Amino acid sequence: MAKPPLAAALSWTGDLKFSATSGEQTMMLDGDSAAGPSPMQTLAFSIAGCMAMDVVAILRKARHDVRGLEVSFRGLRAESPPHRFTEVALTFTVHADVPGDAVKRAIALSHEKYCSVSNSLRGDITFTTEYEVKL
Do residues 66 and 104 touch, judged by C-beta distance below 8 A? Predict the structure, then answer.
């Protein structure tokens, strides 16, 4: 079954600031990164958040006791407009007694199959991941 269309609306509030609304959620976007995250920062949060949620869900479904997870994002951008991401690197730190292969598999499943955000990006972006398991 297809997901329903996602609706979002932005309203300019001055300078490079926009109030963004989707459903019941509202946030401020700011091209100067002062009153809220910039669109590129929001995209970074979205990629990292989507994959982090997938990894936790996959590991928990496999009955691993995940006690914590952090993800760091590093994105390199093109020098000329449109300054898009050309490389994305994510590092996952998983706090659990879980085999590294299970974490590696969860990250791969997220990136290759489940994460709608990373799968919505151009295919020519160099995308790498790393992980660390901490007990």
Answer: no
- CATH topology for 39-134? GMP Synthetase; Chain A, domain 3 (3.30.300)
SS3 133: strand
> In the chain, what are the domain boundaries?
1-37, 39-134
Type and span of the H or E element at 30: strand 25-30
**For 56-68, what is each residue's pLDDT tens digit?**
999 999 999 999 9
Amino acid 121 reads L
Task: Give the neighbor-by-neighbor strand order of the sheet with 68-77.
Answer: 68-77, 85-95, 126-134
Residue 1, pLDDT score: 85
Residue-wise DSSP of 53-100: HHHHHHHHHTT----EEEEEEEEEE-SSTT--EEEEEEEEEEESS--H
Length of the chain: 135
pLDDT in tens, 66-105: 999 999 999 999 999 999 999 999 999 999 999 999 999 9
- Chain centroid to Cα 101, Å, comes to 22
